[in-house]
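Meet my pick.
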Amino acid sequence: MPRPIPATPETAKKPRSILPLVAILLVCLAPVVLALLAYYTPALGLRPDHRTNYGQLVQPQRPLPAEETLGLATLDGKPFDLQSLKGKWMLLSADSGDCSESCVKKLFILRNSHASQGKNVERLTRVWFVTDDKPIPQNVLDGYKGTIIVRADAARLASFLTPDAPAAEAADALKAPMWIIDPLGNLMLEFPPDADPVRVRKDISKLIYNSQIG
């Protein structure tokens, strides 16, 4: 009686496990599944917050009006055209000439945000719109040298910066926010009242770092 042929590696191969293939498939599908869950089930908290800026984007962006529309003037009475600053990021504030504590705080935030930009500091300028004829305290003029100070009619300025404010409340509407105009001349970002100086600075730094203009 012939003896059975002993099993060899070639004749006794075990079935291959499909587990590695399943694992690879799961790894490949995981990002797709997570993306679908994030999109269709926001309650899971998987969807990232798309708003990373502190300031509120102006929608739609508003281009700079013509010189005669704003009617700005320097402190010595000469006409001033905001269009002359195009090519730089403009940090804007508006308030009464007597510059109360809240006004000084805004000027301080803009000055320090500007000064903290390191090698990019020349890409920005800052503007203070004085919305009345009140004299500006000398200590404010001394403390914020380098800020472009121009007088503006509150109603005309508000029609550009805060177009939704009632005309009777234009001057007050201008006192709270701060704004940014991009180098192309578009009003594009507004900061809230009582703004956080650190977060304003971070917003500006992010804009400058990521921008190829200005």
